[in-house]
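Continuing the series of single-chain predictions for the mutant panel. This is the parent chain; the variants come on the following pages.
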Amino acid sequence: MFYFGWARSNRQAEVMGLGNVSLFGYSTQDYVLMSISTLFIPLLVISALAIGWLALHRRVAFMLTLPSARPNLRTAGRAALGLGLLASFAAVIIATLDPERAPLVLPLVLAGGAGLAAYGGWLARAADDSHRPLPPPPPWQRALHVVLLGSVITLALFWEVSKYADVVGLGYARRIEQRVSRLPHATAFSENPLGIVAPGVEEGRVDVSPEADTSTLRYRTTGMRFLVRSGGRVFLVHDGWTLADGTVIVVPDSEETRWQFSH
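Parent structure:
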C-alpha cells in the first residue's frame, strides 16, 4: 500500500510538472491512505481469482483419486506447464525488446505464466502413474523452489502495481485539470506581497486605517484554487489551469499568511 501510494503520487506529480512527489512532503500515513481508494479493484480481482483457483483445485484433487481421469489430468498438466513457460518467456522477451508495449499486460502474463507452469508441473507429476515415482527432493531444494517461484510472482506483481499506479496517477492529474473550476477558491492575506506570477492571479493592497497595527495583513492575492496542504506548504493552482501550460503555486504554510477558502 505504501509503495502503490508513492508510485501513484509520484506519477501525478510528474504529470503536473512538479518533478517528483518529494516536493509534497507526504508522510507514510499519507501514502497508505491515498492508496486505499484505488486498490479496491486490484484486490477484488485477485481475491476473485484466488477463490476460483481454490474451487478448481478442490475439483482437481478429487479427480486425482479417479484412475480413469488421471491420463487426462496428466495431459492437462503438461499443457499447462508448456503454456505457462511459453507465456513467461514471451513476456520477458517482449518487455526486454519494447518495455512500453502493453505495460499493464506483460507483468500479469509473467506472474500468471509462472503460476500456471508451477501448477501444471505439479499436476503432471501427481497424475503420472506410468512409472515408479521419484524420491522427494531434499527440503532445501523444495524451499529454494518456493522462494524462487514466489520471488518471480511477487516481483511481477510489483511491476504490475507500478504500471497501474502510473495510469491511476495520470488519471488523477487529468481529473484535476477537468475539475479546476470545482476546487475551492483560495484567497491569501499577507503583510508583504507574495510575488506570485501565474495566469489569472492578482495581488493588491487592502485598505487599512492609519491606526492599524504594523502586523496588519495589507496584501490580498486572488485567482487561486486550493489543491493540497502538506509538508509545511500550501499547493495551489490558478483558474484555467491545464496540464499543458499550467503553473502549480507553492506557498509556505506560516502565520505570516492567512487563507480564506470559498466555493
